[in-house]
Amino acid sequence: MKKSLLVLSTVILSTGIMAACGEKKDSATNSATPAATASATTPATSADPNAKYDPPLKVSIDFQINDAMAKDFKEADWPNNPWNKDYRDKYGIDLNATWFCSGTDLCSQKKSVAIASGNIPDIMTVNIEQLALLSKTNLIRTDLKDVYDKYASKLTKDTVAESGQAPWDSATFGGKVLAIPQVDSSIDTASFLWMRQDWLDKLQLKVPKSLDELYNVMKAFKEKDPDGNGKADTYGLMLNKDFLDPGVGEALGIFNGFQAYPRIWLKDSSGKLAYGSVQPQMKEALIYLNKLYKEGLIEADFGAKDSAKATELAASGRVGIEYGAMWNAMYPLQQTKDNFKDSNWLSYGLVSNNSQPAKPQIKLNVRGYYVVNKNFKNPEALVKLLNYFVEVNRGPDVQLYDKFFGPKGPGQHPTIFQEWAAKKNLSAHLNVTNAMKSGDAAKLNSEEKTYYDNIKKYQGGDNTQAQFEKVFGETGSFRIMNEYDKNNLFLLDNFYGSPTDTMKSRMDTIKKTEMEFFTKVIMGAESIDHFDAFVENLNKLGLTQITKEVNDWDAAKK
Q1: pLDDT tens-digit readout, 109-126
Q2: Scanning 23, 233, 305, 558, which has the fewest C-beta atoms within 10 Å of its C-beta?
Q3: How do residues 10-36 score in pLDDT, each as one tens digit?
Q4: H or E element at residue 177
Q5: What is the spatial distance between Cα 124 and Cα 122, in angstroms, rounded to a whole number?
Q6: What pTM does this model have?
Q7: Are 36 and 375 in contact (CB under 8 A)?
């Protein structure tokens, strides 16, 4: 489990944006060091994205000490880490951290103080709320899209473009792009249907193609003793109390199969944005889940179990179906393989209640935003730093990749300048499976080679490596991700702006109320006949005003 979680945190699921906070005091004056002073005398550079500054360009930035590096991090060593050394050697860019900090909440708080004081570094990373705050000031440059278009390499542009137009829209205020978004993969959050293929085989059942067929499989998994222990101790579906949160043991895939999309904003028939949790399709999905619960296909006490507790069903080999993310083969489903060597979890695409394909819902995944102090004369330096990360991470030079991302490299954490391709892990799957077919792994980078080697180990009988086959191999979840992508099935949340005023004060209450109602309906403590009253209650709690604000945002970005 620890190995799986480490892989998830450092390789597959990219960590959150390296925000920053606090102030570095000048030792002589004991006052905050003004930003953008060193750059005023630096000569302008040409449009060449690889041009080196001479004399070197001093650039002040913010830096958060990421949890993955906190134990061994030393401020004195930071200027000479491999990333910073290459920035100086290749581009003549000399980074200086105005402050170091750790802890997301503390960093965010102190960053907001820096914005309020009007004293920000040359380049700073911010979240969407802080960007909205900066949009009301005159602290930052408003020409970053032009700078990006001029200096971004083709590879950088291709990488960012994989996430579509939405990241740029989210960085746009008053018709001006105020920041360069730090993109990450949105598609990697999609839901998959995971099933015990060995149970299907034992009971001579076909892979279900619809929600009705899925119900029949769940019923068989409950009633026909698929584990062969002679006890009535198995369940059809693993579910946790936070079943609207993507990840593991969730129900989003079932809702999506009914064309219901909780907690995201969709276009209604009039072209307006509407909240998915209150649409009529939700009722049919809740009725379906209530049926599963009444017939004992879901644990009776699922409403009291968080995801970690719910996954004990998988570890104990007592459940045959769950909905979750592409990485579920690593956690928790590898535990089934560890305890039952003949078990075989496989992923499948979402099934629908009708002839229309089910579309997995996803949210825009932007780690944060890069803003530039209005007094900084060389905004193109930011783009050059992003170009280098993309070149290292996605370029053809395998040795350069391994220098930073190989087993002995510093990884991503010592630099805040990152852009991640939406299809990075999908590309890894395709590269690995092609190498498996050809037997030639020479072109794989160190990450992909690790997957390749572990899949080979699994094929050689090492069941601890099943997780890599079940994610990146020919039978892995990314074979389904590839189908989602080729068939354009992802359904993106249409609201990706800064939280509106009413969202900030009322959305938590609305979400809590909807979870209570949905859970009660599933468990039979509340009638689905009260759905309209539930919607009316949410509207009174603030949903009506939030819907107005969301549509005002949507109209303003057009």
Answers
A1: 888 999 999 999 999 999
A2: 558
A3: 444 333 333 333 333 333 333 333 344
A4: strand 176-177
A5: 7
A6: 0.89
A7: yes
Coil, strand or helix: which one is 490? coil
The set of residues, in sequence order, having a beta carbon less than 8 Å from that of 510 and lying 6+ positions away, is: 538, 541, 542, 543, 546
Quick one: which of 378, 380, 376, 389 has its CA closest to 421?
Answer: 389
Rounded distance between C-alpha atoms, residue 358 and residue 251, angstroms: 13
Q: How far apart are CA 425 and CA 429, in angstroms?
A: 6
User: In degrees rounded to 5, what are phi and psi of residue 322?
Assistant: -155, 155
123-126 and 366-372 strand pairing: antiparallel
One-letter amino acid at 528 equals I
262 contact partners, CB below 8 Å, separation of at least 6: 244, 252, 255, 276, 277, 282, 514, 518
Distance CA 120, CA 61 (A): 9
C-beta pairs of 129-132 under 8 Å, 24+ apart in sequence: 129/498, 129/499, 131/171, 131/173, 131/178, 131/179, 131/369, 131/371, 131/498, 132/173, 132/497, 132/498
- Residue whose C-alpha is closest to residue 114's, from 186, 49, 192, 32: 32
Give me the pLDDT at residue 106, please: 81
The pLDDT value given to residue 296 = 98
* Kind of pairing between the strands at 491-492 and 361-362: parallel
3-class state of residue 322 by DSSP: strand
Report the 10 Å Cβ neighbour count for 303: 19
Half-sphere exposure of 137 (CA within 13 A, CB side): 20
The CA distance from 256 to 283, in Å, is 12
Q: The tokens of 22 are what?
A: 């606090």
Q: Give every CB contact of residue 357 below 8 A, 6+ residues apart in sequence.
A: 349, 487, 489
E strand or H helix at 172, and its extent?
Answer: strand 172-173
- Shortest CA distance to 106 belongs to which of 176, 39, 19? 19
Which structure tokens are listed for 209? 């193609």
Which strand (E) or helix (H) includes residue 367?
A: strand 366-372
Taking 50 as the pLDDT cut, the residues of the chain under it are 1-45
Q: Which residues of 55-73 are buried (b: 16+ CB within 10 A; e: fewer)?
A: eebbbbbbbbbbeebeeeb
Return the bridge partners of 324, or none: 192, 248
Neighbour count for residue 85 (Cβ, 10 Å):
11
User: Locate tokens 């792994």: which residue?
Assistant: 441
Distance of CA 338 to the CA centre of its chain: 27
Q: How many CB atoms lie within 10 A of CB 459?
A: 12
DSSP state of 302: G
